[in-house]
Specification:
CATH class of the largest domain: Alpha Beta
Strand content: 15-25%
Helix content: 25-40%
Shape: globular
Number of helices: 12
Number of domains: 2
CATH topology of the largest domain: TIM Barrel
Distance between the termini: 31 Å
Bound molecules: pyridoxal-5'-phosphate
CATH architecture of the largest domain: Alpha-Beta Barrel
Largest sheet: 9 strands, mixed
CATH superfamily of the largest domain: Alanine racemase
Radius of gyration: 23 Å
Length: 409
């Protein structure tokens, strides 16, 4: 794949990022199979290209976008092909909230995520002098982290730190609070959904490969056990919370899961739809899962500009480090030509990345070295378009958010 990509992009300047269309469709099909018949809402943070979002959503089985900011959601929802946009993370953007409230079409297409009365207070204050309009659609974010218990008491927290809502009582109190908020005599909000993302299962590789097989096996055994217990707990708690909320309001959707957990989350009867994004591009952080192996659909190239020693070449740029806890797994990985490794003292550099290995001797000034990114969507923050490849040929381009002049986080 990377050899063909390199040949196809020989005339293009670097940096250049490519999206292999057959690999994308393989991944899209694989996610659908794993979802077991439930629709997949596409996590846009893992894509960051409206062209790609549109193409994926045109396929049966994909429905709606899980966006990451309200300005992004407003921009997406202005497109008649993208009429169902749930913002997965809370917003504190005064201008965007007022713009949403003033736009009845956006109000019917965009749903905001909340998890506390403090956020409702902020929204109510921000919209206090808004002209009468449609209610703001809201969804509750239920914390899906795992808190193992001993003797009825929490003894740990495994998962992300997001929502404070955990129980049916928490969710009911938010539901009643949402219903009580008025602007004049009309309802300010409409509760339409609930989301519970089990990050400790969906976003954590269960078969890490650090190069130490004994440590990797031990870690994998423990992780799989934790994930089994956590999944059982989430399924029971999410179902109970949904049942409690549905005593008060009918929910349009209950969203759960991510690329790493589709076949598990789909077994939760309370979940009506799944979320996924990263599995479409197949970045390196999704190489270590036992249940699936995405095709490597996205890569980027940097160009050789110098040769410090016969077995080292230096490419311009390359330091496209992924977000998350800083560590080697956040670094891009050189994949073509094979056999190149980064120099420990420099890693992937801001403007220079030295690469060592036998292949260095064959590389010439101007040749491209191909990398895979650790995360899915962040690669699109570095280029204006993804070059589309099929059968070793360039078949088009997909503008990234950046290429459309957009930066949302
Ligand atoms: C709320 C939520 N749902 C789902 C996902 C899964 O996204 P992906 O499939 O890209 O890993 C994420 C990722 O962080 C998320 O924050």
């Amino acid at each position: 794949m990377w050899r063909l990509a390199s040949a196809a992009c020989a005339e293009l300047s670097a940096p250049v990022a490519v999206l292999n269309v057959p690999a994308l469709s393989f991944n899209a099909g694989s996610l659908l199979r794993r979802a077991g018949g439930k629709p997949i809402r596409v996590a846009s943070k893992s894509i960051r290209s409206k062209d790609v979002l549109r193409a994926v959503l045109a396929q049966e089985g994909y429905a709606g976008i899980l966006a990451f900011t309200l300005p992004e959601a407003l921009w997406l929802a202005a497109d008649d092909a993208l009429t169902d946009v749930v913002v997965a993370y809370p917003t504190a953007d005064t201008h965007a909230l007022r713009a949403l409230a003033a736009d009845p079409q956006a109000c019917s297409r965009v749903t905001l995520m909340v998890d506390s009365a403090e956020q409702l207070d902020w929204m109510a204050a921000t919209l206090a002098d808004a002209p009468p309009g449609a209610p703001i659609r809201l969804a509750l974010d239920l914390d899906a982290s795992w808190r193992p218990q001993v003797g009825g008491r929490d003894v740990g927290h495994i998962g992300v730190r997001r929502s404070p809502l955990r129980s049916g009582a928490d969710a009911i109190s938010m539901t009643l609070d949402i219903a009580s908020r008025k602007l004049g005599n009309r309802p300010l909000f409409q509760l339409v959904g609930l989301m519970a993302y089990e990050a400790q299962i969906a976003g954590l590789q269960d078969t890490p490969r650090t190069g130490n097989p004994v440590a990797d096996l031990a870690k994998s055994t423990i992780l799989k056990q934790i994930q089994r217990s956590s999944m059982a707990e989430v399924i029971e708690r999410r179902s109970n919370v949904v049942a409690a909320v549905e005593n008060i309001v009918d929910l349009e959707f209950v969203n759960g899961g991510g690329t790493g957990s589709l076949e598990l989350t789909t077994q939760d009867p309370s979940v009506t739809e799944l979320a996924a994004g990263s599995g479409l591009f197949g970045p390196t952080l999704f190489d270590g899962y036992s249940r699936f192996s995405p095709a490597h659909a996205v890569g980027f190239a940097a160009q050789v500009v110098r040769r410090p020693t016969p077995d080292i070449v230096t490419v311009l740029g390359g330091g496209w480090i992924a977000s998350g806890p800083a560590g080697a797994d956040r670094s891009p990985v050189p994949v073509y030509p094979p056999g190149l490794t980064m120099v420990g003292t420099e890693g992937a550099g801001e403007v220079q990345t030295p690469l060592r290995g036998a292949a260095a001797a064959q590389l010439r000034i101007g040749d491209k070295v191909w990398f895979r990114h650790a995360k899915s969507g962040e690669v699109c923050e570095h280029v204006d378009e993804l070059v589309l490849l099929d059968g070793g040929k360039i078949v088009g381009g997909a503008l990234t958010y950046r290429g459309e002049g957009k930066a949302f986080v």
